[in-house]
Amino acid sequence: MTRMRINQMANKYMNHEMISLHTELPEFPDGRISLLYAVLSHQPAAASQKELLSLVTSLVQMGLDTHDMVDNEPNTAKGGMLGMRAQQLKVLAGDYFSSRFYHLLSQAGQIESIRHISEAVCDINRIKMNFYAKMKQMKLNAEEYLHYGVALKSGLFLSFTGFMSGLYERLWPELVERFSRCEMLLQELRRVEKLSALEGSWGVWHVLQEGTEEDRQALGNRGEDLSLIKSLLHKYEVADKLGALLRQSTGQLQTLLQRLQSDKLLRELQPLIEPFLQATGPQRVTALKELG
User: Fold this and answer.
1) Residue 254 domain boundaries
2) Do 214 and 73 belong together in one domain?
3) Of 136, 212, 224, 250, which is most buried by a Cβ count within 10 Å?
4) Taking the model in full, what pTM does it have?
5) Within a domain: residue 118?
6) 29 with 145, same domain?
7) What is the mean pLDDT of residues 268-279?
8) Phi and psi at residue 106, in whole multiples of 5°?
9) pLDDT of 183-224, one tens digit each?
10) Is residue 24 within 8 Å of 95, Cβ to Cβ?
11) How far, in Å, CA of 292 to CA of 287, rounded?
């Protein structure tokens, strides 16, 4: 219900024929936006602005995520003129989505909100630079990869800590971090199913960290052999390990939610946790093993 409303509002700014025809957009951040909206609803000072704040946060996040889809490799000529146009449109679309946030907040006189979100974007960009540098230098392990991913997912939402009061102000940073970690683990679990999405995944960093010298060398010299990555992820039981991490993080998230001391808010947030619970159910784990 809430998800659909915010999504529809955001689509008014994102639904452009040129973008939809020539490039793809990242997944809308439903979970984190719904989490923000629900918690803001319980903050007397911020409840009246919950729709606006959720909308602009979704637009900024979509802008950041769209820019992340730009291929920065030298041989960007992949796909010829159409490929180049798609890359250019990703840059322009990301800039456009981000610019809408300034416009909407300034119209509403929310100058302080502009400052908080702008500072969060600067922090996120610094984190990205460190993250990409470590990846390029191969100075990253699986847990660090997860840590950076969670920081990038949670950065914008942490900027709303000052909008919370009392118990919510104390719990919000941990709540956002736990929820983002669950989202990150679910995303990585789904990548195990897709041969085309395995490059640079948690599983690859796990094998580079835990694998034998022979397997690490094979992974480093694989070229475009994605089937080799898949076989190594199966050998090192990556789906099982991700499932265990997701179960652990979901349990921690549920424990944290109990501390909010609001049955109404718990009922509102329960649907957001369901995808994490379903992804680690017995049938799901069995299906992932069979994929290997």
Assistant:
1) 124-292
2) no
3) 250
4) 0.90
5) no
6) no
7) 95
8) -65, -35
9) 999 999 999 988 778 888 999 999 999 999 999 999 888 766
10) no
11) 9
Record the tokens describing residue 58, joined without a space.
């979704």
Tell me which of 109, 135, 167 is where a domain ends: 109
Provide Rg for the chain, Cα atoms. Answer: 20
Q: Residue 41 carries which side chain, given as an amino acid letter? A: S
Structural tokens at position 285: 């784990």
Residue 99 binned pLDDT confidence (cut-offs 50, 70, 90)? confident
Q: Own/partner pairs for 68-74, CB < 8 Å, 24+ apart?
A: 68/26, 68/128, 69/24, 69/26, 70/94
**Which spans in the chain are helix H?**
2-14, 17-22, 30-40, 50-68, 80-107, 111-136, 142-158, 166-191, 202-210, 213-220, 226-235, 238-258, 263-279, 282-291
Residues 78 and 152 grouped into a single domain:
no
Q: pLDDT digit string (tens) for 142-193?
A: 999 999 999 999 999 999 999 999 999 999 999 999 999 999 999 999 999 8
Tokens of 81: 């003129």
DSSP 47: G
**Does position 21 have pLDDT exceeding 70, yes or no?**
no
C-alpha 14 chain-centroid distance:
18
Statement to judge: residues 141 and 242 lie in one domain = yes
How distant is the alpha carbon of residue 151 from its chain centre?
Answer: 9
